[in-house]
Amino acid sequence: MRVVFCGSPDFALPSLVAVSKAYDVVGVFTQPDRVMGKRVTVPVVKQKALELGLPVYQFDSISKEGFETLSSLSPDVIITCAFGQFLRRNVLDLAPYGVINVHASILPLYRGAAPIQSAILNGDKETGVSIMRTVYEMDAGDVILCKKTDIDEDETAGELFDRLSLIGADALMEALALIENGTATFTPQEGDKATFCKKFDKEAGKADFSLPAEVIKNQIRAFNPWPTLYAYLPDGNIFKIYSATVVEGKGEIGEVIDDEKGLVVACGEKALKLNVVQAGGGKRMSAEDYVNAHKMKGVILK
Question: From the centroid of its chain, how far is CA 197?
Answer without folding.
Answer: 11
